[in-house]
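Sample A.
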Amino acid sequence: MPIALAPGMGINAYFTYQVVGPNGSGVISYRLALTAVFVEGLIFVALSILGLRQWLARTIPRSLKIASGAGIGLYLALIGLTYSAGIGAITGGGASGEPIRLAGCKPSFINSGTGMCESHQMRNPTLWLGIFGGGMLTAFLMMYRIKGAIIVGILFVSIVSWPRYTAVTVFPKTMVGDSSFNFFKKIVYFHPIKHTLGALDWNITGENAAQFAIALVTFLYVDILDCTGTLYSMARFCGAIDEETQDFEGSAVAYLVDASGITIGSLFGCPPVTAFIESGAGISEGGATGITACVTGLCFFISLFFAPIFASIPPWATGCTLILVGAMMARACVDINWRYIGDSIPAFLTMALMPFTYSIAYGLIVGIITYFILNTGAWIIARITRGRIVPHDHEYKDYWTYNVRGGLLPGWVKRAARGKVDFWREHDFDTEELGSRDSYAIAKKERESGGSNMTGIGVGPSDQLDGLSMDGIITGDRRWELEGPGYPMIDTVPRTDSRMHTRTPSMR
């Protein structure tokens, strides 16, 4: 999958400011918090192996899953508009009570107490460099499907921002600017991790035990919804979702690797690792396979040694990239079932609360609870009145069931329980069936050459059946169309023919 893993920003804030606290002032120590992350990762791996995450992703109502992708797009756009990771077009309302206010002023005009622009809104040169150099230029290149459009925009803005003594420099003549510029000039630098590598503390006793348990449970439920929702939304964004099964190929391995990243990351001193929503940038550039993720991992590895360069890429160089990717992800909202209130309101709340709560998990929680209350209430009323009182436009409701196709346990568990040696294989083919396909191909060639008038049956793709224009089954002069790869809607049963053993289709 073209999905990168990195410490999630939402859960990072909880880890840093509520669990550990500034300068270790939180409820538990940094080392004990890493232990909670490590244990949570092991539980997460077990849930992935047992298929709970896959089942959850398939069980969430369709409109909520689509809304989660659109909500992540709005979340990205909000990040791209802020000062800390974007172009600085908006800021918090501060004492005015407004949740968001127009910004875009130079740092010297920002009130240090409220974080608001006191004046000179939309007059920051870096804002306009980000809009036109990182936004308009990238969008123009994307209109013509030019590969690397996002990288071109980021590099252009970064290179323009690196020289000092300009209005858009990322190294102003301040103490912080001088320190950043001195670090930038090093080009190559490696920071050892001896203080964070394996820094786990297993002293879980006394008061620490209760706070440890609270942190563990919080990490777990947030990651179950956050990581699962993000991974599923990215899979849908790259077109990998099978609409019939609501799953994607290799999902078991993808969920397992995602969960393993949490445990491995904690050993290196990281808070919970998750599928990064910024993976949408690579997908929008055409990434569709794991090669994209491998290249991303290689770039992360290179950045270990060239940290001065990567750390000097200004936020206004990447802000518009996040906005553009968010716009592309938000297109999914047109597929939400807006015709039925029981689907549309939970979907809208999911989509709206993700950016406003700065959390993918909280958006999904609100959406799921709202969906359950509305639709369970409507179901109870319909049962009591024997179907006489139902919601308006109830016939447009998206079908939903907890008993999804495939069940709770993943396929490999079921195959292992049946004693399959190669239980990790997702598709099992019957040897006799494959032999019958080969027999048909031979018989068909003999009939066409006049060597035999036997009636046979063939099952297979058109490119293997000499001249057929589409996938189908042929028996004599009759034909059945197949449903798709693997031909799941067709069963075959043996039928003894006086001339040869053939198979006839049984349509269910």
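Sample B, a different protein:
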Amino acid sequence: MPWSLRESSFNNAYLPAECPNYTNWDLFTIKIHGGGEFNASSGAYVGGTYRYVDNCDVDEMSFLEVATMLEEAFGHLGYCEFSYKFPNVDGLNSIRTDNDVLVMCTKLDLSRLVYVYAVTVNVEYTQEFQPSQQASLEYLDIPNVDGLDDEEIDVMLLENLAQQYDRVEEVENDAVVNDQAEGEKKDM
């Protein structure tokens, strides 16, 4: 069963708990917060709102999945940084990679609930993107450092291949001669 975004009107559906009483230990709930920021002095998440995402499966979780949940819950908020914590536990942990999400899933406790916080980050671009000045890809004639032209290089490659072929032929001939010599020894 895929995860599902709980309707806001049902936020209190599982009181006194915040999530269903899961019988499958692979499932859990994320209380995802978006549109707010952390207060520098108190460390509290202020502003924004939250939504519950139920039936999250630990085997299907990834960074992209968390970002998709955020977008489905709040729309596009821009570039966000994610953190998580567990109920009644101090300390935030960053979510930057799939591995961070996997670690989060391994730390789930009996409550089967995790709080995820998204903070929109203002990204400043230091330079404007400029498309290539070259309109199309064309064959570039790059001069050879040895001063050889293409025909001379082709001749050298063919000579090299011929030498390798001659060596292979010599080894094969030697093997045939050795096999014949051993066969003659056995006949004696």
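Observation for Sample B: The mean pLDDT is 84.
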